[in-house]
Structures are given as structure tokens and as C-alpha cells.
Amino acid sequence: MADEWKAPAKTSAESADEKSWKLLEKTLLAGVQEQRRSRRWGIFFKSLTFLYLLGALFLLSPLVGMEKGASLGSGYTALIDVTGMIADKEPASADNIVGSLRAAFEDKKVKGVILRINSPGGSPVQSGYVYDEIRRLRGLHPDTKVYAVISDLGASGAYYIASAADQIYADKASLVGSIGVTAAGYGFVGTMEKLGVERRTYTSGEHKSFLDPFQPQKPAETQFWQSVLDTTHQQFISSVKKGRGDRLKDKEHPELFSGLVWSGEQALSLGLIDGLGNASSVARDVIGEKELVDFTVEESPFDRFSKKLGASVAEHLAMWMGFQGPSLR
To answer: CA neighbours within 13 Å on the CB side: how many for 96?
Structure first.
């Protein structure tokens, strides 16, 4: 009988290779299993977060749909904050303030509107828009009074807005007034000459680049720009006189419209304000409805972030470079 065939014995090297492959195989399988477990846990936690947000939205949905102050009694005072720079795409933009004003006037439970102001001013266009809208709404709703209450600062464009109200209140130490116009920039002509840098500007229109900070000023253009500021200043003065009327103690006061800022106590003696107080005291003692309901438009964090990275960046850069329009400050 022939000898039975036997497989050749493995050498020590082949045995070591086989163990290495098995170890590698186990390692790879363990990695795959770990990835699968990680995916499953990831899906679990994402689903849990989604369910949590969905539940929170469900619970808050009645509050989201509820009108401002709907749970309160028969009446309350509407509060609208005017804080910071008055400018387009800012919290105190005309669109935001006007939207808040319209919502407050349309609310049947609102017994009075308080504009709580803490602002250095800003754009004459934005301020004028709010001023005109306040006077229009007052005409449509004569029974709903508007009260401007200045906290720390109500200057320039902020006072422009306040002068449209039925009455103005401030603290005795508040800063009030600054009825004037400014347009600021920089001049880099001397610096360019020292650095040996030549400015090359190509324009169509004789005065197209008259605000260019890298070119020397021309007397005729400076005089023209001053006339623009003077015209805007006269518009400001006219609006304040129309809004305050005979309450201004001395309309011909040599410094009343000079751009100076006054304390609340001084402003009261000049007729720039009607009394001393704050939002709570005006709501309680003047309007007679101490309950305050905030009608201020609030932007979402995403909107604020996108605006900061968008048009406002270019706008502020242009202002810094000297291309700034008139400001009520």
C-alpha cells in the first residue's frame, strides 16, 4: 500500500506570517465594528437632539403665536428701545423703530407708547424717517400718546426723533441735545508725499472725487460740502422747533442749536424736555399703565452675524476711509 500523502510542515516563518495576518484581520474587524458602534451612537444622539428640539418647539409654539401682551389685562404701556447708532442695518434702524411703532399703535390694549432712548444719534435720513412716522401715527391715533424717555444719552439724531413725541422726559444727569451735523474724515496727502506714493484717480465729473482723502481739498468744494451740512442742520432745527413748539423757552438762544449737549436739568430749563423721570415712572404716573410690554424689534443672532460680515463691513470701511455722509451727532 502506497504511503499516505502528508502536507509539508510549515516553517517557522510561514507560521509567523499567518499569525500576523490573523492579528491584522482582527484589528481591522475591530476597527470596522467600532465605526459601526460610533455611527449608531451618533444617530441615536442626533435623533435625541431632534426630538428634544421638536418637543421644545411644540411647548413654546403657543407663546410664539401669542400677541405681545395678550395675557395681560385691559391695557398696558408699549415700550420701544432706541439704543446705539441710528443707522441702516443697525438695531436702531428706521425700519426696526417704525415697525415697532406701527405694531404698538395697532394694538388696542396699548394706552401709551414710550420710546426709551440711549443713543448718540446717527443718520439724518433714518432719524427724519422715524420723526415723520411718529407724527403721522400721532395724527392717525390722537388718543395714543408718545413719550420719549432719555436715559444716559439722547443726542443729535436721537433728540431729532424725541422731538416728534408728545412729551420728552430724562434723568437730571442725562445728556440731551447736540443739535448739529457733522461729517468727518481723514486727509492722507502729506503722508502720501512722505512715502513717495502717487495717487492716480480717474473720474468722469469734475467734482466726483471731492471727498477722496488722498487728494488735497479745494476751497470751492469745501464750501459746497459745508453748504450741504448747513442745509441738513437747518432741517434739523426746523423739525425740533415744529416738534417742541412754544415749549422751547428761548428759540433764539445763541447756543441752543450749536451742537452743545446739556444735562437733563439744564435741558428742562431750556424747554428741550418736559420733565424728569424714567420709563417706569412715566408709565406709572403719566400714562397710568405701569405694566410695560416690549415692542422692540429683535433681530435673530444669524441676521446680526450675516449683516456684520456683509454690507456693514464695507459701509464702516468707507466711513473710516473718509467717505462718510452727514451724521447728526
So the answer is: 20
181-194 pLDDT tens trace: 888 878 888 887 78
The answer to whether 248 touches 161, Cβ cutoff 8 Å, is no
C-alpha closest to that of 185 among 320, 329, 327: 320
pLDDT at 64: 38
Q: Measured between alpha carbons, how far is 104 from 45 in angstroms, rounded to an integer?
A: 43
CATH assignment at residue 216: 3.90.226.10
First to last CA, the chain: 118
Please report whether residue 143 resides in a domain: yes
Which residue would you say has higher pLDDT here, 318 or 143?
143
Instruction: Pick 60 or 262 by higher pLDDT.
Output: 262
Tell me the backbone φ, ψ of residue 310, rounded to 5 degrees. Answer: -105, -125
**Total number of domains in the chain:** 1
pTM of the model: 0.71
| Contacts (Cβ under 8 Å, ≥6 apart) of 110 | 69, 75, 76, 77, 78, 104, 144, 293
Domain extent at residue 80: 76-320
Q: Flag whether 45 is in a domain.
A: no
Tell the burial category of 11 from Cβ atoms under 10 Å away from its Cβ (0-12, 13-18, 19+): exposed
